[in-house]
Design brief:
The chain is of the alpha+beta class. It has 2 domains: 181 residues, Immunoglobulins (Immunoglobulin-like, Sandwich); 111 residues, Sandwich (Immunoglobulin-like), CATH 2.60.40.10. It contains 6 helices and 18 strands. The protein has a 5-stranded mixed sheet. A 4-stranded antiparallel sheet has the order 1-3-9-7. The protein is elongated and about 105 Å long. The termini are far apart.
């Protein structure tokens, strides 16, 4: 399989993954059909909404200004709905996809504010009667300090009873597929609609693994509070002092959320990693803007051995074992020949 064919397959899979996520999780407030779903949601767009045609919250508010965001919820079940609600700041995962739910991704230190301190959920549990209607009300208090760009996050809603069943399945549930639906409503906050010039930088670089596969991770920082769309990223790993790339990864169609730190993996595939000093060069292109960074890093022998042994792609290096076996076989044959020569000479 050549590189161009592999690239087309990667793009196709990423597109399908993005479509799946968009349909099943990131519904952005679209009022879904009641068929098969425990509940449906519909955001109530306030007067501060920048664009009334979208189905998520995109608000322009002044510093310290307050407002209440409302999401209508309809319970499609014949039993009470115990709603689980959560808030999280928007981040970007290693596949270049923006996530609006809880995760372990970090944010750049230049972020205007923590989303959890700007948007607050009600403290009381939310319960909706069978086939009834209810509301999720969030209190928004804009940061005191004016900022340029966007503060993005999301409200995640799910069925708390379904969550409990998934977390603690009984024997019957253990053999069944657990279908857990979540609705994520995006929330974008800003002081103005002026465009912000994006700026990227390269942070920590170190070897590691993703799904038991060896990679070199480069942390790409979005230093600005703005989305960076249609991002093309190329990562090349070479030895310090050499211009020859040992490992290369190219990706397209990425999106960085405001102030995101995206871990970009350069895949080593089935090639083993050895000790030494290396350099990672990252080139990123988005809408006629281009960035290029490079940073050196060191791989110790112990770290290389640990990664190679635990990788599902790197084949064990049996060179020394084969040499030992060959040497042992040769010694045995030689000893046999010598013994035969001695016996023949005596006779």
């Amino acid at each position: 399989m050549n590189e161009m064919t592999q690239k087309r397959i990667d793009i196709r899979w990423r597109w399908l993954l993005g479509l799946f996520v968009a349909v099943t999780t990131l519904l952005f407030g679209i009022h879904a059909s009641a068929d098969g779903l425990a509940f449906s949601v519909q955001p109530v767009l306030p007067t501060q909404q920048v664009n009334q045609k979208v189905t998520y919250f995109d608000l322009k508010m002044n510093p310290s200004e307050k407002t209440t965001l409302i999401v209508n919820v309809h319970n499609n079940k014949k039993t009470p709905l115990h709603l689980s609600a959560g808030l999280a700041q928007a981040t970007t995962n290693l596949n270049g996809v923006v996530e609006y739910g809880q995760n372990k991704q970090q944010l750049d230190k230049r972020v205007p504010a923590k989303f959890a301190k700007v948007v607050a959920l009600p403290k009381k549990p939310i319960t909706i009667d069978p086939n009834g209607d209810g509301q999720v009300r969030m209190q928004v208090t804009m940061p005191k300090q004016r900022f340029n760009g966007q503060l993005a996050g999301g409200l995640t809603l799910s069925d708390a009873d379904a969550n409990a069943n998934t977390a603690s399945p009984n024997k019957r549930q253990a053999v069944a597929i657990q279908n857990q639906y979540q609705f994520v409503v995006a929330i974008v906050l800003r002081n103005n609609i002026a465009k912000v010039t994006p700026k990227l930088s390269l942070g920590t670089v170190k070897p590691g693994q993703v799904n038991a596969r060896n990679v070199v991770n480069g942390a790409i920082h979005n230093e600005t509070a703005t989305f960076i769309n249609q991002l093309k990223v190329t990562g090349e790993v070479s030895r310090v002092g050499s211009k020859t790339a040992l490992y290369t990864t190219k990706q397209v169609g990425y999106q960085l959320s405001p102030n995101a730190i995206m871990q970009f993996p350069v895949w080593l595939k089935d090639r083993s990693l050895s000790a030494g000093h290396y350099k990672l060069t990252v080139t990123a292109v988005s809408q006629k803007r281009r960035w290029q960074f490079s940073k050196t890093f060191k791989v110790t022998g112990q770290k290389a051995q640990q990664l190679n042994q635990s990788s599902v792609e790197v084949k064990p290096d049996n060179t020394w074992r084969n040499i030992a076996i060959g040497a042992g076989s040769g010694a045995t044959i030689l000893a046999g020949l010598l013994a035969w020569a001695v016996i023949r000479r005596r006779h």
